[in-house]
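Sequence and fold
=================
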Amino acid sequence: MHVDNKDKSIQNDTQIYLHMENNEEEAQIDLLNIVSHMKKRKKLYQYILLAAICAGVLIGFVLIGVEHIMGQGSYAKAVVSFQYEGIEEGLDPNGAAFDINKIKSPAVIEDALTSLGITQYSVEQIRENIAVEGVIPEDAVERITVIKEMALEDVSNYEKILDVSYFPSQYIVYFYNKLGMSGSQATQVLDAVLESYRTYFLETYANTEVLTVTSNLIDYREYDYAEALDMLRTQIDIMLDYVNERRSQAPEFRSAATGLSFGDISTALDTVEGVDMAKLSSYIESHTLTKDKDRQREYYEYKIKKYNMDISEYQVRLNNVQSVIDKYQKDPVVIVSSQETTQQIEQTNEYYDELLEQKLSLSEKIAALNTDLNETYVLLDAINGSAVENTQNEFDYVDQMMDSIAQTITDWARLTEETTEEYYTTTLFSNAYKIGVPAQYSATGGIVSTAKKIVIAVFAMVFAVFAIWCVDGLFCEIRQIRENKH
């Protein structure tokens, strides 16, 4: 019994102090006394805690109701990702700034609604309920984490977080159901939008439409034969430039649908230009075939004037380049190979080499223009010296040849588009845009979602009451200390 009293005495003498100091006085507050004051109000705060729990449950249900009214609690969600060169720098495949918000552009949404046959909702109603959120890349997260750890030792390091730049390659796309759709319909709409964006993405960056712009907008039959021939030749050149660029990108690619490689298409177009069009051009020139001699004469005179102007411009540029080359000297580099001998070599200079390339390019352009100029002079002389009237058979023959060549160009344009589309879809852009997680619907009132919101609200209320309880005990102890001093 004596031991128990001693233990009780030791327990009573145990104190934990909170030291407080200001300009006027010092005080030590016993934390156990605070707990004692809190115990005295235990009954009161038990009722308050019970009321707080009820209030938290009520607040949780209110939040759920507000989300339901605002449509923020029910949504379809999907994850999309991009994998191509440049996305890490925030660029699109063409090197311009990438804009993820194109995923909810009117054209994309309209195509999606059309594919689903939905007419009761407008494009704008769908668009304003779509939100896109970028996922921070792992390397950016790691850098931010490291900086935060450094900031624990030096607060100034927090400023470095502002210098951490990142461009997401993965995005979460939300479609909030504020329109009263069923869950399955909201999911279908989001899936359709994402698929429509795939089409938009490929059409934008495959750029196959460039092949048919000229032939679709301009009818060569409305022009004289020489003019129409130039137009068809321009169309061939546009296609050749496009195909040869794809050929350099994918020399081994062969389409499964058309059976063609870009090399095959390039060879075929060269044949059309070098054989069929050359034959047509030769016939027109040898028969000085024209629908209107005066109009044709004016056309040749305009071409001669244009060639002379271009030649003059290129000649001035060539003279300027040559002047820079003449005044430019490469710096020699002396390399000591041993104590007895030295070796002197000329320094490789990229700027000087670029000047030489410019000179060569300008010289080739001037030579080509001079050739065209001389040919045009010959054609103009032929028109001026011709007194023969063309027959209807000659007109019919050229019309037939021109129709055949135009149809051949159209056919090859279609084959080029199909081959290019397969190349972009299956090879170059096969993984450029992927729907990582298809649309999934999350509805307000789900067990997990509801429980989570209620638990958070209850925890917040209980924490607030407990904090007030502790502060109340602290004030009681301070008041008791002041009373004891007086």
Notes: Residues 2-69+447-485 form one domain.
